[in-house]
Model the fold of this input.
Amino acid sequence: MEFEPVIGLEIHVELSTASKMFCGCRVAFGGEPNTRCCPVCMAHPGALPVANRKAIEFLAKIGLALDCAVPGHSIFHRKNYFYPDLPKGYQISQYDQPFAVEGHLDIIVDDEPHRVGIERVHMEEDTAKNIHAGESGRIAGALYSLIDFNRSGTPLVEIVTRPEIHSPQAARIFLNKLKNLLKYLDVSDCNMEEGSLRCDANVSVRPAGSSELGVKTELKNMNSFKHLEKGLTKEIQRQVELLQAGERVVQQTVHFDFATGEVTPMRSKEFAHDYRYFPEPDLVPLEAGSDFVESVRAAMPELPGARARRYVDDLGLPEYNAEVLTSSRELSDYFEESLKHFDDAKLVSNWLMGELLGYLNATGGELASCQVTPESLGNLLAMLGSGQVSNAVGKEVFAEMCQTGKAAGEIVEARGLTQISDEAQLAGIAEKIIAANPAQVEQFRGGKQQVLGFFVGQVMKETKGRANPKVVNQVLRQKLAE
Ligand code: ADP
Ligand code: ZN
Ligand code: MG
Done:
């Protein structure tokens, strides 16, 4: 029997507001433990929370960017559970009246568009951090544990998808697209290693073609794209094997060990949490109002979809280029900045997608730390445009720019790479090559036009790629006709 995977993701995003969700402590990663905390985020009795307006604004941005309905009215609940990193004994979260509902995010999987529904987007607060003293850093085997409250109360947005993702690859594509969108919105640094973006994956399998949902398991804290894709693949395989053996899947959390590639069930018993949600009595209902929501909507930055459309409609780029260039905010900012220095969208786009991304891929580098600025790329392309350097030499110069951060002009000058467009000089070289290859000359004169390419190649070789191809062609045709 064929099985189809069904996946739903729960994504947590730490917002990059200046202060925490319900107090004035600063939000930042790491630092000396317990240096950014106060009675509110350490849960001292009687301390009262006040909601962070900026966080609500960021939340609205996320909701709107995911095409959600944002009613403007919502309330906070207490989600009760015990854990040392949660000394209040409850987390302030949202329950039956989340801030944003019923949205979607479109992705492309195997060249096919696919829409993933967003069930809800709500506001909550992050917990403190347990630090287990011991070699492994895990609770097992630790001598004792300490608690760092710096993270406690960091604004956390939870985004819950509908179970509408159907492969590990699609889950990765979705998470990547969501991350990209959040970066456009400038609401989080989305640093997965530092936990600013975290993902729990729910997964079940069902007979292909069925519309019922199977029993799901949950993979917690998939903290990289690779983790997510590989963990889901392994878990789907485990579930299919169980069903094929006539057994059943038990609803539980499973642990994925990236190092060994093994998935192991965490709890043997089916277990439904009862968080005893009730409305948070220390906070008034959130009446953001339609004015607020509309003002956030009006101030939204241009999102990747709109940017891509503009590249196609206004700049005349192919859809594919537009999609690639808007795949990250940094890249599209880089592209637009380059255009200010060299105004040929197609050429800039080709160089970014071919040379720049190629270089970053090959070296595993990040655009943010790339030594070539949009301005210096623009300058190189201008030298190309004016015929100062040939295309082949341009690529060589670009590689050196990436490695050294030097300007194109400086490299070209130091290495004597300027393009040779001088007709007399090229004619001299052409004559020599024609004289040395009588057989090819005969073929060409006998009507074999493509032999011209051979001669062009020889001239290029002789000039180390510096010859202007247009002039070379012209000179060769002339000489061969003589
Ligand atoms: P729970 O009550 O266990 O938290 P929810 O219904 O709230 O479950 O869903 C949590 C996440 O799990 C959502 O992203 C949802 O899309 C996903 N999900 C729910 N049921 C299934 C299922 N049968 N298979 C896969 N994912 C599911
Ligand atoms: Zn505080
Ligand atoms: Mg739930």
